[in-house]
Amino acid sequence: MGAVGLQTHIWANNTRSILLLAGFPVLMVCIIYGVQLILMGFGFLPGTGRGLGDDMALAATWLGGTIPTALVIAAIWFAMSYFGSQTMIDLMTGARKVERKSEPELYNLLENLAISRGLRTPTLRIVDSDSLNAYATGLHEGQYSVTVTRGLVNTLSRDELEAVLAHELTHVINKDVRTMVIASIFAGIISVIAELVFRGLMYSSGGSRRDDNRNALPLVLIGLAFAVIGYALAIVIRMMLSRTREYVADAGAVELTKNPDAMISALRKIEGRSSLKGPDELQQMFLDNQPDGRGLEGLFASHPPIQERIDALVKFGGGRDPGPWNGEAYAPEPSPWDTSVPAAG
Amino acid sequence: MLTTLIVIAVIVAVVLFVIVGAYNRLVALDQRADQSFADIDVQLKQRQDLIPNLVETVKGYATHERATLDAVTQARAAAAGATSVNDKVQAENMLTASLGRLFAVAEAYPDLKANTNYLELQRELSDIENKLAAARRFFNNAVGEFNAVRRQFPTVLFAGMVGFGADKPFFDVGEGDRAAMTAAAPKVSFTA
């Protein structure tokens, strides 16, 4: 069913995310199968000695053993990032924790949003950088943290800052950090396997084989096709997943603040000013992260273009787009009563 | 025979699945709209609580504006007494209009305009008015979404049977506001 409003937009993107996430195990099966075919083709694994179809069927029966092994590796990998990621991220970005006393306004904004959803207030951190960006980290309760840059705090108005904090808080509420860690682990395992295959092919091209397989060439070619397609799709799916989570977080920010305009003008302000360094897993959680190059970036970008995010907010959230930001203040809201009443304050 | 039964069972299961899914979506959207109306209510209540203060403050300076002040007090009482959504919308629009008149009248009293208490009240009311506008917009968005999903096929076929037979009412802006908007609409001309 198509989206007609904010909630249906969120539902549609959540369904999409689940389908995308379900794609990873499928891809993993594809790529492992591909590797088995290649190994069989080169004679490292025994074939049936009969036709191509029989060899491929034999390789399929091995999946019962290889897939559980791959899942165990994924679980160990996940456990490692689960316990180590926060420390790594803190070390890499130089974010420092701030308390209520040093940033009372910012802290209160975050705390009010957290209270309205019955959440424990996440740790608030600030990166001393002039670029305009923010991110959420943390894989479990008590570890959740929202980080903003100094430039963001200085440039955005109160409402816009609230919208950005709500966007990050939505990532926390939806456990997007965990989703993206899982996605990056799957993508990581798949790319490690793919890399091993490509390197192995290069080195073994002149090497000796234990026993020749009659279907060597077709087996290797089919296996290679599985591996290449699986590898490319893994990256594309990971990025598509990241993009759907951004749409949901934008919509969630409007749910929390009831103010689509603030989210839109915040996006307008960070547009083209969001460049911030960080590891891949972290960049996915950024408020905005645009690839440097142009071209295929649509497929491999972790974030949708700002314009498309704004269009979604206008279409589903009923927001108004003030147009690109030129560095000056946007026109203030007209007085709620009469034009004769001067702006208070 | 058995295959026919299985096919029928599968079809029934799919239809049930679709109906249950659509019903749950309607319930969630309905609940969401009600909840966002509660957010409007919070702002309305806060505004009503500030008004007696404002009236007292203005009374001290603008003694000749009894009619305007009474209109505000009456509108507030009506707003506080309203229960149904339609009554609330009407009463609150009256209150907004009478407040607008009060602030316009206050322009003629420099002492009042310099009063810190008055300025603070005006600032707070203006803040509430902005929040109210945002909450109202969100509510209308939620209502629009509920209505649209309710009328979608195949939901529309059974929505009436499960208690979602009618569209939800929007929180309309008042006639006065609408007239002002029409008057202020930008004029576009393509002739030189």
Can you tell me about this structure?
Chain A is mostly helical. Chain A has one domain. Chain A has eleven helices and four strands. Chain A has a four-stranded mixed sheet, sandwiched between helices. With 192 residues, chain B is an all-alpha fold. Chain B has one domain (2-171): de novo design (two linked rop proteins) (Up-down Bundle), CATH 1.20.1440. The chains are: A mainly alpha (345), B mainly alpha (192).
Portion of residues within helices of chain A: 55-70%
Structural class of chain A: mainly alpha
> What is the radius of gyration of chain A computed over CA atoms, rounded to a whole number of angstroms?
24 Å
Tell me the helix content of chain B. Answer: over 70%
Strand order of the largest sheet of chain A: 1-2-4-3
CATH architecture heading of chain B:
Up-down Bundle
Task: Assign an overall shape of chain B.
Answer: rod-shaped
CATH superfamily of chain B: LemA-like domain
Question: What's the CATH class of chain B, please?
Answer: Mainly Alpha
Largest sheet of chain A: 4 strands, mixed
Q: Whole-Å distance between the termini of chain A?
A: 48 Å
- Supply Rg of chain B: 24 Å
**Oligomeric category:** heterodimer
Strand content of chain B: under 5%
Total count of helical runs of at least 4 residues of chain A: 11
Question: Hey, roughly how much beta strand do the residues of chain A contain?
Answer: under 5%
The geometry of chain A reads as elongated
What is the strand tally of chain B? 0
